Amino acid sequence: MSTQLIRPARSLQGSLTVPGDKSISHRYAMLAGLAEGTTRLANFSTGADPHSSLACMEALGAKALHNTDGTIEITGVSGSFRQPAAPLGCGNSGSTMRMLSGLIASHPHTFTLIGDPSLTLRPMDRIRNPLIQMEAKIDLTDGHAPITIHGTPLRAIDFTTPIPSAQVKTAVLFAGLQAEGTTSLSESILTRDHTEHALLAFGATLTRTYARVPNQPARLSIPGGQKLKAIDATVPGDISSAAFFLCAALLFPDSNLVLDSLGMNPTRAALLDVITALGGKIKVLAVEERHGELIGTIQINSAPANRAPAAATTPFLIEGPLTAQLIDELPVLAAIAPFTANGLILRDAQELRVKESDRIALVAKNLRAMGARFTENPDGLEIPGNQTLHGASIDSGSDHRVAMAFAIAALRATGDSEILGAEAAAISFPEFFTSLDLLALR
Ligand code: S3P
Q: 328 catalytic, yes or no?
C-alpha cells in the first residue's frame, strides 16, 4: 500500500489534458470486441478499470494491439465470442462486470465473472433481474460475484429501470442488441447516455424518445439480432477525473486552469453548473461533436478573494436527479464542501453506499479526521461551509475517488496530510498525483 504526502497549496495554475473517459472507454472496448473489423481508439483511458474490460474482450477472442503512439486497435469477433479459458477477471470494475454480463449472456458458452474483494461485495441482482426476464441463465453467489452465466438465446423485454443506473441500462441494451425481438427500456431519471451514442456509432439501430413532460420517463428501443461495424474514434477526456482539478481551482482565489479535449456530454456535465454556482467562472473556449459525444476546451477561474461574487447564503443542495447526474463527483464535492462559503446538503445519495466503498461512510470518516463539522444521514451528508480543517491521515479505503477527493481537500488544510492507499487512484487516473504536483502552487 502506498502513502502520498499532500502539502497545502496557495493556488492552482496551468493546463491539463485528463485521460480518456472511463465510461466511454469501457463501452468502446466492449462494442469493438463484439464488432466485425478493427476499431482504432485514440486516448483510451489509462485507468485500470477499462483495461479490465479490454482484457475480458481478449479472453473472449478479440485481439488488442497497443501501438507506440498510444492508440489501441481492437479486432472484434464478428458477433461470436469464444469460450474463455479461465474466469473473466473484472478487477475493481462494476462497469465491466455489469455491462459485460449483458453483452455475453446470449453466447453459447459458460462464463464465470470474478472481481476483487470490493467488487465482490457490490450488488449484482440489479442486472440479474432484467437479464433473467430476458431468459438469461445467470447465477449469483448470495446476490454478488462470482457470477456464472450459461449462455442461451435471449428474448426482448420492456423494462423500467427501478434505480437510476447507466450500468443496468447498458446491460439491458447490450443484451437487447443480440436478443430476439425489440427490447424497450424506460428510465425516469436520465443517466449518462454514452451507451446510446456508442451503439449508434458502431452502426446499431436504436430509437430514443425523451420525455417532453417533466417526470415522464425517457424511452429507448433496440431491435435484436444486430451486427456492429468497427469505428475509428478518439475518447474524450474524463470529466469525472477533471472534477478533482475543477474543485481544486475553486479552493483558491486567482486560480486559473485550462482543460482541453474534455468530454462535455450534457448527461455528465452537471458539475460545470455546480462549480459555477459555487463561485467558479467557466469559459467554454471550443467545443465539437464526435460520435455523438461533445468534446471541448474549458477555462476555469476562481473569483479573486477581494472580488468574490455576492453568493447565496444557503447551503448548496444536491438531491433527486442532480444526485444521479453527479454520482461520481459527489466524493470530491463533499470533501471540499467545508471550504465553500455556505456548505453543501447532499440527499438521495444512498447509491454511494454501494460503490467501490461505502462512500458516505468513508467521506464522513475522512472529514472527521480533518476536524470537519457535519451530519451523516442514511442518504447523504450535511456539511456547513466556511470551516478550517487540519491536515490528517486519510484512509482511501482502496477507493480511487476517495483517495483523490481528499488529496484535493488536503490542499486547503492547515498542515500536511497523507493519503493511505494512494495507489487506488490508478483505477481511473494513474497520472493524478503527478498532475496535482505540476498544477498546485505552494
Ligand atoms: C457508470 C455508471 C455509474 C457510475 C460508474 C460508471 C457507467 O454507476 O457511478 O462510475 O459507466 O455506466 P451506476 O450505473 O451504478 O450508477
A: yes
Q: How far apart are the first and last CA of the chain?
A: 26
User: Ligand 1 centre from 167 Cα, in Å?
Assistant: 5
Secondary structure (3-state) at 244: helix
pLDDT at 413: 98
pLDDT digits (tens, 9 = 90+) for 204-213: 999 998 766 6
**Active-site annotation holder among 328, 379, 416, 437:** 328
At 211-225, the pLDDT tens digits run 666 667 789 999 999
Average pLDDT, the chain: 96
Comparing CA positions, the residue from 293, 371, 386, 276 lying closest to residue 338 is 386
Angle between the 400-409 and 359-369 helix axes, to the nearest 10 degrees? 30
Q: Are strands 380-383 and 375-377 parallel, antiparallel or unpaired?
A: antiparallel
Q: Can you tell me which residue has the cell 446499431?
A: 204
Report d(CA 343, CA 40) in Å as an integer: 44
Query: How far is ligand 1, taken at its centre, from the CA of residue 86, in Å?
Result: 26
Q: Which whole number is the average pLDDT over 393-399?
A: 98
CA of 386 to the centre of ligand 1 (A): 31
Q: Which residues line ligand 1 (CB under 6 A)?
A: 23, 26, 95, 165-167, 170, 192, 327-328
Distances (CA, A) of 2 to 70, 140, 374, 418, 419: 27, 33, 29, 10, 8
Question: Ligand 1, residues 21, 22, 23, 400: which to mutate, most atoms within 8 A of Cβ?
Answer: 23
Q: Say what the pLDDT of residue 306 is.
A: 47
Read off φ and ψ for residue 110, nearest 5 degrees.
-110, 130
For 351, residues 6+ apart whose C-beta sits below 8 A from its C-beta are 163, 164, 165, 324, 327
Nearest alpha-carbon partner for 147 in 164, 166, 131, 165: 131
Rounded to 5 degrees, what are φ and ψ at 5?
Answer: -85, 130
